């Protein structure tokens, strides 16, 4: 007990002799509270100059013009492709039977010649009624066939008296121009046909030329 009291007495003497110990610690705490943690300083930003901004704006405008021009070209190309595709589909619908029509007009030629032959034999004075009925039947078939042709856009040319056209006619002979202008079609040996305005078989014709004395 005596030893504890002696130590306590020494401690009191020590703190009395050095009063600055507490004041120094308090000042350090107050100084630390006032200053607080240091914040990192931000570096000042350097804005772009007016010249750099103007140059950048010009480049952006050029890019916009270039992209706009590319877009217009792509749009025009796609529109052309669409039109060509649509034209191809329409032509396929119209002229898909072109090969069939070429074969069919040959049948029409045979029918026409047969009808003309029957007409020459079935004279009004001929007492044979069978031949007359055959001729009438062939005439009806030929008329019906031409009607079907017209329904599907297939038409026979009638070039006699018209100007020679190399896209529609094929010359097989020349004949003297008697009462006709030179260069006109004087006769037809084989009919030509058009399908929706497109020539699928040329007419075989004789063209009138000036008579040589």
Any chance you could write out the topology, listing elements then pairs?
Layout: H1 2-17, H2 20-35, H3 50-95, H4 98-121, H5 129-151, E1 154-156, E2 169-176, E3 185-190, E4 193-195, E5 198-201, E6 203-209
Parallel strand pairs: 2-6
Antiparallel strand pairs: 1-4, 3-6, 4-5
Helix pairs in contact: 4-5
What's the quick description here?
The protein has 213 residues and is of the alpha+beta class. Helix content is 59%, strand content 15%. It contains 5 helices and 6 strands.
Low-confidence stretches: 18-35
**Helix and strand succession?**
HHHHHEEEEEE
Per DSSP E runs of 2 or more residues, the count of β-strands stands at 6
Question: Share of helix among residues?
Answer: 55-70%
For this entry, give a set of tags.
15% strand, 59% helix, 5 helices, 3-stranded mixed sheet, single chain
């Amino acid at each position: 007990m005596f030893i504890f009291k002696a130590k306590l007495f020494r401690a009191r003497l020590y703190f009395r002799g050095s009063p600055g110990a507490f004041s120094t610690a308090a000042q350090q705490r107050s100084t630390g509270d006032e200053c607080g943690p240091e914040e990192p300083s931000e570096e000042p930003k350097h804005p772009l100059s007016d010249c750099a901004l103007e140059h950048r704006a010009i480049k952006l405008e050029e890019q916009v013009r270039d992209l706009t021009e590319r877009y217009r070209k792509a749009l025009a190309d796609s529109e052309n492709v669409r039109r060509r595709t649509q034209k191809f589909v329409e032509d396929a619908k119209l002229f898909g039977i072109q090969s069939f029509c070429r074969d069919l007009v040959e049948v029409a030629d045979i029918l026409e010649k047969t009808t003309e032959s029957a007409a020459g034999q079935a004279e009004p004075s001929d007492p044979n009624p069978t031949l007359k009925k055959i001729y009438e039947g062939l005439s009806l078939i030929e008329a019906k066939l031409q009607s079907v042709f017209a329904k599907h856009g297939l038409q026979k040319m009638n070039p006699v008296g018209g100007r020679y056209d190399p896209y529609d006619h094929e010359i097989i002979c020349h004949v003297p121009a008697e009462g006709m202008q030179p260069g006109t079609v004087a006769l037809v040996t084989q009919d030509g046909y058009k399908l929706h305005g497109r020539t699928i078989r040329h007419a075989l014709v004789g063209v009138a030329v000036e008579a040589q004395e």
